[in-house]
Amino acid sequence: MEPPSDPIATFNEWLAAAEQTEPNDANAMSVATVGPHGMPSVRILLLKAADESGFVFFTNQNSRKGREIAANGKAALCFHWKTLRRQVRVCGNVETVPAAESDVYFNSRARGSQIGAHASSQSEPLESRAVLEERVRQIDRQYEGMEVPRPSHWGGYRLVPTEIELWQDREFRLHDRFQFLRTATGWQMQRLFP
After folding, report:
1. Does residue 2 fall inside a structural domain?
2. Range 160-174 burial, b when 16+ CB lie within 10 A, else e
3. What CATH code is carried by the domain that includes residue 47?
4. Residues catalogued as catalytic
């Protein structure tokens, strides 16, 4: 594989290819954050946009990931497309997207997902499934016949990459790995041993 010159453009090409081959959620990614005692935590989320400004995802900002992002402002992403035998790793600083951008995405979601965003105190202890289901019913009744507004605690994050690694499987585990580091003048690329 020849070294790519633009990691964001290559990422979007690989994502488009994965959308044709992955059976579900080609935009699924692992999102890793670090807690106050240095313990990492990771979970799967869905990427909603990727361009030169960064990688965008949306969530409950009071969740564990939201609290960890607020505390240190950094995260890492990992995409793995098994059918294409490709992986992309991204590290960087995380910023909150503008409220208007969060509003646009929230308004595009299914009503049930909008209600769920209000009903769930994400990452907090839950007494029983019945408690959650009752909260969903209450929120549904509260907004019956109305648009569901975006909760103030729900919104988007943009991971602004400082490092991107493109990984392509090769025979005998002699994989191609290209690491891109952001500099003041653009991306600096180096090949890594597999």
Report:
1. no
2. ebeebbbbbeeeeee
3. 2.30.110.10
4. 173
158 burial (CB, 10 Å; 0-12 / 13-18 / 19+) is: buried
**Does any domain span residue 50?**
yes
Residue 109 lies in a domain: no
The pLDDT confidence band at residue 74, using thresholds 50, 70 and 90, is: very high
Q: How far apart are CA 56 and CA 104, in angstroms?
A: 13
Q: What does the alpha-carbon distance between residue 109 and residue 90 come to, in Å, rounded to a whole number? A: 26
Contact 18, 24 (CB under 8 A): no
Dist CA 65 CA 73 (whole Å): 11
Rounded to whole angstroms, what are the CA distances from 21 to 15, 82, 177?
10, 9, 22
Centroid of chain to Cα 3: 25
SS3 78: strand
Q: Which helix (H) or strand (E) holds 190?
A: strand 186-191
- The pLDDT tens digits for 37-60 are 999 999 999 999 999 999 999 999
Paired with 43 in beta bridges are 31
Structural domains of the chain, count: 1
- Residue 119: phi, psi to the nearest 5? -75, -30
83, two tokens: 């059918």
Q: What range does the domain containing 167 cover?
A: 7-96+153-191
Report which of 53, 128, 61 is spatially closest to residue 93, judged by C-alpha positions: 53
Residue 164 covered by a domain: yes
